Amino acid sequence: MLDSQPVEAVPEFNTMQIELVRVDDAFHFEAVGKSGIPQHIDAATDIGGHNAGARPMEMLLMGLAGCSAIDVILILQKQKQVIDDFRLTVDGLREKGATPAPFKKIHITYLLKGQLDANRVKRAIDLSMDKYCSATAQFRPTTEITYSFEIQP
């Protein structure tokens, strides 16, 4: 049995907490963190969900995308790069039929538009992947993460 004690606040660590509340009699949940902005989570209809929110594993990929996007944009802004548009797609590969089915491979495609130097973009992404992105650090021990990028003028 898992220890049911809450995480103790320790001064040298940042603590984080979310609350998850069941919305219906199936698998629709609302999660709220410190930001106070609710996020909806649901299961697929084939197991009784109502498709009223993101799947938990999708949210993991969304977290990875958001974490790296923030890093890359901050780094490029510090380098005085002009970003007119920024998007990324994340593709995750999980083993079929496995339980649990963690991600084995993840590929991130960064799509940028603006007056950007390709070497600076690559360096910003490398820094995010290798140094700054905490979500990447969570996946790294068990998941191969690769990336590519495209710059449009």
From TrEMBL:
Gene3D superfamilies with a match to the protein in the record: 3.30.300.20
Name by which UniProt lists this protein: OsmC family protein
Organism, as annotated: Spirosoma taeanense
Domain of life, source organism: Bacteria
Entry-linked Pfam families: OsmC (PF02566)
InterPro entries membership: KH_dom-like_a/b, OsmC/Ohr_fam, OsmC/Ohrsf
